[in-house]
Design a protein that fits this description.
homotetramer, alpha+beta, Beta-lactamase, two-stranded antiparallel ribbon, 7 strands, globular, glutaminase activity (chains A, B, C, D), Glutaminase (chains A, B, C, D), Beta-lactam/transpept-like (chains A, B, C, D)
C-alpha cells in the first residue's frame, strides 16, 4: 500500500477541520500551541515511516505515555497489576472521582488518570525511577536519543495538578498507593512532559503492532500481553468516547490532551496524528477525523 | 485451519469449567436448563460449519437478538437511530436505570436492555411487526425454517418483566419511546424467546464476518455499517465486562442470559458457544473460557 | 397574637413575588391556573381560622396528601412501615430513580413520589380503599363534606404519569410493592386530585399541631408519632430544598406541585399558603417567602 | 424541671447500651478510649449545669467544632459564606467525594468534612488564625481557660488524613479553596483535637439556646442567624442519619466521631452526651438513645 499517498489524501480531506475544537488551556504551555497545526505519520512493522504536515514537530505527549508505562509494568512486573487497577471502560470523564469512590479506590482502567497514577506507582516500585525508565525506553524505540522531559511543562502540570492530587490522596486513603503521593505525582507529571513528534511516536509504539517485539528484535511483551494492551486501548483509550472511536476508526488508540492520538493495526502498522483542537470529550477533532479517513481509505481496521 | 480439531481441543480444555457459575433463575424456563450443557460451533465466511458437544441443542437466544434487531434497524432505517441510543460502553449492569436518568432517557448503547427496547421500538415503527421481521431474517440466514418463538418463555419473561417495564416507562417519560410501552415490551419479550442452536446462530451472524453481505449474496449492511456493528459489539456486547472480554478473547461478541455468546472475526469466521452457568456479570463461565482458548489456539483475534 | 393582622402584613410584603416562578405545566389542569393567585390561612389548635387573599379558593392538593396518607398508615398499620420506606432526606429530585436503584427499591422517605407510592400501597392493603379512606378523613377534619376528587385531574395525572409508572415498576421488581402496580397508581393519582382550599387544609392538618389529637378530640397518633411525622416533614417535606426551607422558615412543612405548602408549629398553629409559581426545585416562590415572613414577624419557629 | 433527676433516669435507662457499637479506630488516640464511658450534661439558658456519669472527663471534640467555626464565620464574615457551601442534607457519608464532584466542588453543607474545610478556609481568611480564634471562643464561653489542643491527636489526624487531603485538593481544583490546602488542613486538624468535657460543651453551645447571645451577654449572632444554625444542625448535623435523628430525638444536634453529641432546645437548654461506641453511620449508640430518652421523658422537643 502506498501509505504516503494515503496520508496526503487524508491531510487534504481533513484540512477544513484543522483549527476546529479548542486546544487544552489549563496550562500555559499547551494553551500557547498554534491550533492550526496538523501532522500525521505511519510506520509499518519493519520501521518504514511516512509522514505529512507537521509530523516532525515535537509536542508534549501527555496521556500517550500511559500506554508505555502500562507496557513497562506488564513487562517488568510480577503479574499482580490487575489487582490494583481494572480494565473496564469507565463511561466517565478521565479525571472523575465518582466511580473511584464507588469502587473503593480501584481505578477502572490504566488509561484514566487515576489508573495511570497506579501504574506509575507500580513502575516506581519496580524500578526506583519511573520517569527515567520511561525516557530510556522511548529513546531506544524511537531511535531518538535527543528525547527529553520539558521541565517547564512538568512544573506547570504540577502547579495546576490539584485534581490529580485529589485522585492520588483518595487512592492513598483506600490503601491503593504504595509510594508517597508527592513522589508518585512528581514522576507522573514529568512523564507527561516528554516532547516527541509523530515520527518518534509511531516508532515507539511499534512493539504493539509487532505483537510485543521491540525495535531491536528482543521481546518486551508476550504475544498475549500485546493483544491485551491493544484490547485495553480499544475499550478504554479515548476516555468516555471509546465506543464512538471504535465505531468510527475501528482501531485500538490512545489520545492525549495535547491533541495527539496513536493507533495500532496489529500486524500491520502504527499511526500517530497531532492537531491541538479538542472536542468536548478531550480528543483531537481533526485527529479522529484523520484516523477515520485513513481506515476508510485503506479498508484496514480490526473490524 | 482445522476448525474441528480446534473445537475439540477447546471442549476438552474447558470441560472442568462446565457446570461452574449459576444459570439464570429469574424465569422457570431458564432455571430448568441442565447446567452441564456445553456446545460450540464455528462457521467460516463460506458457510462451512463445525460443531462440538451440544451444538445442535436449541436454547432461548435472549439478548443475542439485540445484535440482529440493531442490524435490521440500521439496514431499514433512515439513519437517525443514534439520536435515540448511544454507542458508548455503559460501565454499569445491563438493566440499570441510574445512567439512563443522568442522561435523560437516552440509553448508552443498543446492547443494554434500555437500548434494545429503543431498537425494538424503532423496528416496530419501521416494519409494523418487529418480532416477525426478526424471525423471518433469522430463518433466512440460518436456513432453518423451523425456527419459532417459545410462547412459554415469552409469557414468563413478561410476568417477570417489572424491571423492563420500569426502563420503558422511564424512557417514555423522557419522550424516547414512540410506540405504546406495552406493545414494545410484548415484541421485545417475544424476540428474546426465539429458540436456536449454535449452528443456527453462527450462520445467522455470518453477515458480520462477511462485511455486511447476507447468505444469499445480497447486502444487508454497507461495509462501514458492518464494521460499526462489530465495534459496538466489542465495546458494549458483554455488559459491564466488555473490557475484560476484549482483553481475554479479543473479538467482538455478544452474550445472552441463557449462557450463549456469539463472536465474530471479521473476514474469517463466526463463533457461538453455549453453557448455562453464568459469572457475576451475567456471562457464561465456560463460554468465555472457550472463546479465550479458541483465539489463543488459533492466534486469530482482532488484536 | 393577632394572626389576622400578621397575615395581612405578610400578604402585603410578598405581593411583589406573586406571579414569580413558573406554574407546573405537565398537566393541563395545573397549567391553566392563574399564576397571580395567592391565598394563606392559619388555624390555631382550637380551630380558629384566619385567612387572606384567595384562601377560600380550591386547588389540587397534590403532594400535600402524602402527609395525610402517612399519618393514616401510622395510625392504622402494624408498625412495620419503616421496613419499606426510609425517613432520611434524599438530597435528590422528588421523582429520581437513581437513589432507589442504589438502595434496592427502598425509597428514602415517604414524601418523595416513590415513598408515597409505598405508603399508598400499604394504605390500600390495610383498608381495601386507600383513596376513600383519605377522602373520609379529610372531610371529617376539615368539616367540609363537599370535598371531592377531581376526575379530570386524576385522569390527566395518569395520562402523564410515565415516570410514576417507572418508579412503581422498579419497586415491584425489587419486591417492594404489594398490590398490582396499576391499582396502586390509580389510587395515588386520585388522591392527588382532591380539591381543597387553604381553610380546609389548615383544619385537616391540625392534628399535627395538636400532638396527634383529631378535631373531634379522639387520638389519631400518639404524641410520639405526631412528633415523628413533623420531624419527617421538616427533614424531607420540600424535596431537595428541605435544608433551605428549614433555614428560612424553621417549621415542618410539606409542599405540592400546585404551589401549595402546609406548615406546622407544634402546640400552636398550622399554616397553609397557595400561590402557583414554582421555583427550580418545585416549591412555591411566594409561598416560601410568605412562610419565611410569617415566622419572622411572629418570632414563632421551632428553632 | 428537675434536670438532675431526668439525667439520672436517662443514664439508668441507657446503661445496657453503653459499650455497644464500635469506637472510631482510625487514629490511635481515639481507638484507645475506654468504650464503656458515658457522660451527659445539660445547661439551661442561665448557665446552670447538671451532669451525670463521666460528664467531667475530657475527650476530643472532633466534628463538634464544625458548629462553632460555622457560627464564628457567620458572626465575622461578610455574608457570602453560602456561595461557597450549601445548606442541604447530603444523604451521603460525611467524607464522600461523589456529590462534591457532581456539584462542582460546592459542599452540600458545613457539617460534612468538605463543608467544614470551606468554613475553616473562610475563618482563616477572616482572622489569620482559624484555630486560635476557635480556642479563644471556646475558652470564653465555657469559662474554662485550661482548654487546649491535643498535639498528639492533631498529628495523628494529619497522618491519617488522606481522605481530607483528597477533599481539599478536589475543592481547590474547582476554585473553592482560598488558602493553600496544607495550611487549611493544618488548622482543621488542630481544631478537631481540642479536648473538652460535657460541661464545657453545654456551656460553649449555650448561645444557640439563647438565640445568639453569648455568655457575657454580648451578641454573637442575630436571632435569625441563630435560628439558621439550629436549622442546619437539625437537617445536616448527624451525617446521613439526620432524618432518623430528627425522628427519634427531635432536636437540632451535631455529633462527632469520638462519640460526642451536642443538642439544642432553643430558648430552653443545651445538652451534651458522650459515649464512644458508634453505629454504622458514625453516631454514638448510647448517645442517641440518651437524647431520645431525654426528650421523651421531658416532653421537650422542637416538634
Amino acid at each position: 500500500m502506498d501509505y504516503q499517498a494515503v496520508l496526503e489524501q487524508v491531510a487534504a480531506d481533513v484540512a477544513p477541520l484543522v483549527g476546529s475544537g479548542r486546544p487544552a488551556e489549563y496550562i500555559p504551555a499547551l494553551a500557547a500551541v498554534d491550533p492550526y497545526r496538523f501532522g500525521m505519520a505511519v510506520a509499518d512493522v519493519d520501521g518504514e515511516v511516512h509522514g505529512v504536515g507537521d509530523w516532525q514537530e515535537p509536542f508534549s505527549v501527555q496521556s500517550i505515555t500511559k500506554v508505555f508505562t502500562l507496557a513497562l509494568v506488564l513487562a517488568l512486573g510480577t503479574g499482580d497489576l490487575w489487582k490494583y487497577v481494572g480494565r473496564e471502560p469507565s463511561g466517565n470523564p478521565f479525571n472523575s472521582l465518582v466511580q473511584l469512590e464507588y469502587e473503593n479506590g480501584i481505578p477502572r482502567n490504566p488509561f484514566i488518570n487515576a489508573g495511570a497514577l497506579v501504574v506509575t506507582d507500580r513502575l516506581q516500585a519496580l524500578t526506583g525511577d519511573a520517569r527515567g525508565t520511561l525516557l530510556e525506553f522511548l529513546r531506544a524505540e524511537s531511535g531518538n536519543d535527543g528525547l527529553e522531559f520539558d521541565p517547564v511543562v512538568a512544573e506547570s502540570e504540577s502547579a495546576h495538578g490539584d485534581r490529580n492530587f485529589a485522585l492520588a490522596y483518595f487512592m492513598a486513603s483506600c490503601g491503593n498507593m504504595r509510594g508517597p503521593v508527592s513522589r508518585v505525582l512528581e514522576h507522573y507529571f514529568w512523564q507527561c512532559s516528554v516532547a516527541m513528534n509523530c515520527r518518534d511516536l509511531v516508532l515507539a509504539a511499534r512493539f504493539l503492532a509487532r505483537h510485543g517485539v521491540r525495535a531491536d528484535g528482543s521481546r518486551l511483551l508476550t504475544r498475549s500481553e500485546a493483544k491485551q494492551v491493544n484490547a485495553v486501548m480499544l475499550t478504554c483509550g479515548t476516555y468516555d468516547a471509546a465506543g464512538d472511536f471504535a465505531y468510527r476508526v475501528g482501531l485500538p488508540g490512545k489520545s492525549g490532551v495535547g491533541g495527539e492520538i496513536i493507533a495500532v493495526m496489529p500486524g500491520q502498522y502504527t499511526l500517530c496524528v497531532w492537531s491541538p483542537g479538542l472536542d468536548a470529550r478531550g480528543n483531537s477533532v481533526a485527529g479522529v477525523a484523520a484516523l477515520d479517513r485513513f481506515t476508510t481509505l485503506t479498508g484496514l481496521s480490526v473490524f
